[in-house]
């Protein structure tokens, strides 16, 4: 069989498997805050108040998101691009609009991974079978499936921002020629990433510091020249600073609000101070093992490759690897109850890292280790598909006929239940008991149901 034919079969298999394993999940009803993101995507909501907090007398009202505006503007622009498709679907019919929205959101991940596959096929040498299987394993992994079909920022715009940065950095690393165009491309990609969540900038700066120390130590120890590495790191730092400044100027309220989110997630010190016990933290993370096993596999593989090639590794490749570890560790070591979407950026960055670090020649022991890890990755996918298709049934969509609101009543619902129900007045229950009650008073409305079961934390 000719090499070009093999590459075509590989791409075709990737496309087929990517969508085949997601068909079941496209039908899942929206949950929680997904409705707010659906509203931005479909109705192209303008900021700075992007998030739908409810509806009163047929008029939607909104609140500030606690993240920079660029994230939501990017999602709004993506909605504009997809609007010709969305307009063909009945807006208020959940059973029709929801699968379309989940499909469109999964395209963020699809085109990124497809781009990696196209890159592997564009090289003159044959596609490494292990690399091909690895990309397929990532694409159909539980983590990838869950994060791609969810209507959330992290698994959509988040992985796009991180993927563009990784691609630009590895593009400048693959060649010894440092053209002006490559530097501009790297700056633009870093700027866009830095205009996203601030934790990405903080982790990336930490990774740059680690790589800088590594470079300083190895170059001085081996008495080697620094070449272009300091310039690359400097461009990234300038891009981070410029991106954050621009993000603040665009929306200072949303920008500053994000630091409260970071504070909520960065409470590892509370584990040591017995705010939660260490065993509680272990149980909290053990419950997530199935969702993060793919990322752990990528960390294991990339770490093996780094250790095998530590003397010849290029700084940009090392930076991508450390950045990916940081994205994973920042959430993994927090005390917060997390969702798979929080690990979407680390999934995509570590995929780039493994591709970049993959050895040209694979020793027998390395081949065996990769094969075992690939088997485990595909096995986790099989288990996930079996449980999702045969054990956990699909919940029914929200039935608005169950509500019988009076003129002076307003329902306590999530945006997922009522984002497209223009005839239903509601308040987003994520505002909390106090926020919902205060909002109802301002609107001169009675809450329905009056005996709503609030979680204890509210």
Question: Briefly, what is this?
Answer:
With 458 residues, this protein is mainly α.
Would you write up a description of this structure?
The structure is a single chain. The chain has 458 residues and is mainly alpha-helical. The protein has 20 helices and five strands. The chain has two domains: 3-30 and 65-391, no CATH class; 402-448, no CATH class. Helix 5 (94-122) packs antiparallel against helix 6 (129-139), helix 6 packs parallel to helix 18 (364-391) and helix 16 runs antiparallel to helix 17 (344-357). It is globular. The termini are far apart.
The secondary structure category is mainly alpha
Q: What is the H-and-E element order?
A: HHHEEHHHHHHHHHHHHHHHEHEHE
Strands of the widest sheet, in order across it, are: 2-1-4-3-5
Q: Give me the number of helical elements.
A: 20
Q: What is the count of structural domains?
A: 2
- Helix share, percent: 55-70%
**N- to C-terminal distance:** 63 Å
Shape from CA axes?
Answer: globular
Low-confidence stretches: 267-274
- Quick one: biggest sheet? 5 strands, mixed
Mean pLDDT: 83
Beta strands, count:
5
Beta content: under 5%
Spatial extent as radius of gyration: 23 Å
Q: Secondary structure elements and their pairing?
A:
Blueprint: H1 3-20, H2 23-26, H3 34-43, E1 51-56, E2 59-63, H4 69-86, H5 94-122, H6 129-139, H7 142-149, H8 154-173, H9 180-194, H10 198-222, H11 229-250, H12 252-265, H13 269-272, H14 278-286, H15 289-308, H16 315-332, H17 344-357, H18 364-391, E3 409-413, H19 415-418, E4 426-428, H20 432-442, E5 446-448
Parallel strand pairs: 3-4, 3-5
Antiparallel strand pairs: 1-2, 1-4
Helix pairs in contact: 1-5, 1-6, 3-4, 5-6, 5-7, 5-8, 6-18, 8-9, 8-16, 8-17, 9-11, 10-11, 10-16, 11-12, 15-16, 15-17, 15-18, 16-17
